From TrEMBL:
The keyword Hydrolase applies. Keywords: Glycosidase, Hydrolase, Membrane, Transmembrane, Transmembrane helix. GO terms for biological process: carbohydrate metabolic process. The chain crosses the membrane at residues 21-46. The keyword Protein transport does not apply. Pfam families: Glyco_hydro_28 (PF00295). Belongs to the glycosyl hydrolase 28 family. This is Polygalacturonase. It comes from Kingdonia uniflora.
Length: 317
């Protein structure tokens, strides 16, 4: 009887143990699933906020802006408002004028903070750094009446798309020395969609303007910025010397964005283009020396241009 009772208790306990196993595994599987979800979410948030830290414990902090000139000023110091609605052309012009006065002291740096800075075209000056902070966007005004009209380029004769004057670029400069355009990958947005439509519908009377055009200048450096949706060519150095364009992203729709060339060195000498990503609706890079007989008459060829380590996607029709 004793042996029979012990055996009965053993089998009863074994049966109870077997019944507990599914409940035990189910509870631990639920706990494991919860921990896996939490761990994956933590990893995702950590990667997303790698620069600024884990946001549940540390608020994101804006990246400090380096001092690249003896004097630095902010666009807001001159009345700029980055709300995407206020026109900031006068703020840019006042800031550039202030930096121009510093040319004998090593120049100045114009910091564009995070925000959407709507503007008409404006000019740069020598010994100037234009620094676009992270999440800073310079927005081109879309109404062409705000865009400056300029004479045709001397090596293009009567004009590229129409005879006579042409629209200037959003950011422009002539006869400059020692100009830097850089940042924490801020953006220059040409908002070119309306220009592309009007061009296709033949509603424009003048040749469209580039996003960035520097002419008859030397010692120009462009790096760590994004250019997108240019009305026409994106970066157009014209008859310049000693130019470097590095770590730049240039974007436009591959289809439906006519003539949005990425970088067009034109009659330039001693130029480096490297480590860039270009995806545009025309040539990724087009080396030029004017146009037809006008370029021959101008007589300034493009020489000593090094291009390396690029990713390019473009459509040429």
């Amino acid at each position: 009887m004793i042996e029979t009772s012990s055996s009965g208790r053993f089998y009863h306990q074994r049966a109870e143990f077997k019944r507990c196993i599914p409940a035990f595994l189910s509870a631990h599987l639920t706990l494991f699933t919860v921990l896996w979800i939490v761990g994956f979410a933590s990893l995702f948030l950590w990667q997303k906020n790698l620069v600024d830290g884990f946001w549940l414990f540390k608020p994101a902090v804006a990246r400090p802006v380096p001092m690249m000139r003896p004097v630095a000023v902010n666009l807001t110091d001159f009345g700029g408002k980055g709300d995407g609605k206020t026109m900031n052309t006068e703020a840019f012009e006042r800031a550039v004028t202030a930096i121009k006065k510093l040319r004998m002291k090593g120049g100045g740096q114009l910091n564009v903070p995070a925000g959407f800075w709507l503007t008409a075209p404006f000019n740069l000056t020598s010994h100037m750094t234009l620094f676009l902070a992270e999440n800073a966007v310079i927005l081109a005004v879309q109404d062409e009446k705000y865009w400056t009209l300029m004479p045709p380029l001397p090596s293009y004769g009567y004009g590229r798309e129409h005879p006579g004057p042409r629209y200037g670029s959003l950011i422009h400069g002539q006869h400059l020395k020692d100009v830097v355009i850089t940042g924490h990958n801020g953006t220059i947005d040409g908002q070119g969609q309306s220009w592309w439509i009007k061009h296709r519908q033949k509603l424009l009377n003048y040749t469209r303007g580039p996003l960035l055009q520097i002419m008859w200048s030397r010692d120009i450096r462009i790096s760590n910025v994004t250019l997108r949706n240019s009305p026409f060519w994106n970066i157009h150095p014209y008859d310049c010397k000693n130019i470097s364009i590095t770590n730049v992203t240039i974007l436009a729709p591959v289809f439906g964005a006519p003539n949005t060339d990425g970088i067009d060195p034109d009659s330039c000498e001693n130029m480096l283009i490297e480590d860039c990503y270009i995806s545009v609706g025309d040539d990724g890079i087009a080396i030029k020396s004017g146009w037809d007989q006008y370029g021959i008459a101008y007589g300034q060829s493009s020489t000593n241009i090094l291009i390396r380590n690029l990713v390019v996607q473009s459509t040429v029709r």
